[in-house]
Design a protein that fits this description.
The chain has 474 residues and is α/β, with parallel strands linked by helices. It has helices at residues 27-36, 86-92, 96-102, 109-122, 183-187, 199-207, 219-231, 263-270, 274-283, 293-305, 409-412, 422-434, and strands at residues 20-23, 44-48, 126-128, 130-138, 143-151, 157-165, 167-170, 174-176, 193-195, 212-215, 239-242, 315-318, 321-329, 333-340, 345-351, 353-356, 360-362, 401-404. The protein contains 12 helices and 18 strands.
Length: 474
C-alpha cells in the first residue's frame, strides 16, 4: 500500500475508548505507531515514561554499526513506500546522495537512533513522560482500563490519568541484566562496576582506572573492549576480557543462517511443542549473541598493530570463564573469583573497574498486569501463552486483545528482539486488529523449509483460537 502523511484521527475524549493503546515507545512500538498512522481509522495512544526517545544511548560508540541492514528500519519491510522509512529520513535532511555514495548497507547505531527520534517527533499520539501503572479489564464496558502517571521534567509524579481502549500492545522492552555475584558491587559507587548499557556515561571514569575488566562475549562486550583498547597507551593497556562461552565466537551471519530471522521460521517455531522450543532457544545463542566478524577482525588488527615494535599488548582475552563470587579490596579495587569451566581451575583477579556486557532480560510484566492475572492463560513454566498473532491468550470473557512485542521469545523464537522483524510483526498486529489486510504480507520469506508439515499462512489463526476485530469508526 502507499502510505501518505495524513492527519491523525480526532483523539477520543477521556471517556471515549481508543482502538489501541501502546505501553512503551521503543523501536517496536514506534514501528507500530508509524504503520498505524496512515490507516486513519484507528485511534491510538502510546505511552512512555522516559521524557523522549533514545535507543541504547550508552552504547552509541563512535563507529559502532547495527547488525541488520538499513532496510530493517521501522516500516520498509512492510511498506517500502511509507513516509517514515530510513530513506525518507535521509531525504528530509538532505543526506540521500551522500548515503548513496557512501555505499553503506549497515548504518551506525547513532544514525539509527537519530532516524528513530525523527520518526518519534513526527508520528502523532506519542506521549512521553507518561508511566503506565496498571492495565485492567472492565467487564461491564468490555474495555481495558489503562492507568498512568504523568511525570514532570525531573521524572517526578505530576498527575494521574486513565484511558480506555479496546486493545493493548505491550512494548516495554528489556532491562540490563547483572549476574547475582556482581549485584552488590554494581550498587556501590566507590569502584566503577557498570553495565555496558551505561558505558558512554562512564567512559572517562573507566579510562582513568589502572586496570579494567570487561565481562561478556557478545557484540556489546566486543565493542566496549575495542573502544577501551584503542584509548589505552601501547604496552600499558591493562585490560582483561572474560567470557563464559568457550570462544569469542562470530555471530552466525550466513545467508541461510539468517533465515532463522524470517516470518517462515517464526511460524515454524511457534507450532513446535513447548519443551522443544525451550530446548532450542539456548542452543541458538550464536544466531544473536555472537560477535560481528568485522568487529572481531578490528580487535585482532588493533592487537596485531601493537606488536609492531616487538612484545605483546598487556591485554588478556580469556573465554570459558565464569565469575563465582566477587568482593571489594579496600575501597578502590574489586576482586573477582574466577573458575575456568574446562580446566576446572580457580583463580582471583584484582581490577580497578568492571564493565558488565552481560546482556538484557525481558522486563517483567507481572506488576503492570496484576489486575489481569486471572484472565491470562499460562504454559507449564507459568509464562504467558502467546498466539501466532502476538496476542496473550486470555479467558474468552475478555473480548479485547493484548499484543506483545519483544516479550515472546519462548513462543516465537530468536527473532523476537530482532529489528529486522519489527515492521513485519507490526503489520501482522495491525492486520489482526483490523480484520482486514492493510499491509499484505508475503506467504513465503525463506528458501529453507523448516519442517515437513505446513505452518499455515500469515494471519491464519490456529484451530480453536479466537479472533478479535477492532470496531472501526466511520
Amino acid at each position: 500500500m502507499t502510505a501518505q502523511r495524513t492527519s491523525a484521527p480526532t483523539p477520543p475524549t477521556p471517556e471515549e475508548p481508543h482502538d489501541l493503546v501502546g505501553v512503551g515507545i521503543g523501536p517496536f512500538n514506534l514501528s507500530l505507531a508509524a504503520l498505524a498512522q496512515p490507516l486513519g481509522q484507528i485511534t491510538t495512544a502510546f505511552y512512555e515514561q522516559r521524557p523522549a526517545f533514545h535507543w541504547h544511548p550508552g552504547l552509541l560508540i563512535d563507529g559502532a554499526t547495527l547488525q541488520v541492514p538499513f532496510l530493517a528500519d521501522l516500516v520498509t519491510l512492510a511498506d517500502p513506500s511509507s513516509p517514515w522509512s530510513f530513506l525518507a529520513y535521509l531525504k528530509s535532511i538532505d543526506r540521500l546522495f551522500p548515503f548513496y555514495f557512501a555505499e553503506r548497507f549497515h548504518i551506525t547505531r547513532a544514525e539509527y537512533d537519530a532516524y528513530c527520534r525523527w520518526v518519534a517527533e513526527g508520528v502523532p499520539a506519542l506521549h512521553f513522560g507518561h508511566q503506565v501503572d496498571a492495565v485492567r479489564w472492565n467487564g461491564e464496558r468490555n474495555l481495558f482500563e489503562v492507568d498512568f502517571t504523568q511525570l514532570d521534567a525531573d521524572g517526578e509524579a505530576e498527575a494521574l490519568g486513565r484511558t480506555y481502549t479496546r486493545n493493548v500492545v505491550l512494548g516495554v522492552g528489556t532491562t540490563p541484566y547483572i549476574p547475582e555475584p556482581l549485584k552488590p558491587l554494581a550498587e556501590a559507587p566507590t569502584v566503577p562496576v557498570i553495565h555496558s548499557a551505561d558505558y558512554l556515561d562512564n567512559r572517562e571514569r573507566l579510562l582513568g582506572a589502572e586496570h579494567i575488566t570487561v565481562i561478556g562475549s557478545g557484540q556489546s562486550g566486543a565493542e566496549v573492549f575495542l573502544d577501551l583498547l584503542k584509548a589505552r597507551p601501547e604496552g600499558r593497556e591493562k585490560i582483561h576480557w572474560l567470557a563464559r562461552t568457550e570462544a569469542f565466537a562470530p555471530m552466525e551471519y550466513s545467508k541461510l543462517g539468517l533465515e532463522h530471522f524470517t516470518p517462515d521460521y517464526t511460524r515454524y517455531f511457534h507450532q513446535l511443542p513447548e519443551a522443544v522450543r525451550d530446548k532450542l532457544v539456548p542452543q541458538q545463542w550464536q544466531l544473536h549473541k555472537g560477535i560481528d566478524a568485522d568487529t572481531i577482525a578490528a580487535i585482532h588488527d588493533e592487537l596485531y598493530r601493537r606488536t609492531l615494535h616487538g612484545g605483546w599488548p598487556d591485554a588478556t582475552l580469556t573465554p570459558g570463564v565464569s565469575v563465582r563470587t566477587a568482593g571489594r579490596v579496600a575501597t578502590t579495587k574489586v576482586e573477582l573469583h574466577l573458575e575456568h569451566l574446562q580446566q576446572g581451575t580457580r583463580s582471583r583477579l584484582t581490577t580497578d573497574a568492571v564493565v558488565l556486557a552481560t546482556g538484557y532480560r525481558e522486563r517483567p510484566l507481572d506488576q503492570m498486569l496484576a489486575g489481569l492475572d486471572p484472565y491470562i492463560r499460562r504454559d507449564s513454566s507459568e509464562r504467558p501463552r502467546i498466539d501466532d498473532q502476538y496476542r496473550l491468550v486470555l479467558d474468552p470473557s475478555v473480548t479485547g486483545s493484548i499484543h506483545v512485542q519483544n516479550a515472546e521469545r519462548h513462543t516465537h523464537g530468536v527473532g523476537a528482539p530482532d529489528l529486522g522483524l519489527a515492521a513485519w510483526r507490526s503489520a501482522a498486529i495491525l492486520n489482526s486488529l483490523t480484520g482486514k489486510e492493510p499491509y499484505p504480507l508475503p506467504e513465503r520469506t525463506a528458501f529453507t523449509t523448516f519442517g515437513l508439515t505446513p505452518t499455515g499462512a500469515p494471519g491464519q489463526d490456529p484451530a480453536g483460537q479466537r479472533g478479535t476485530l477492532v470496531q472501526l469508526k466511520g
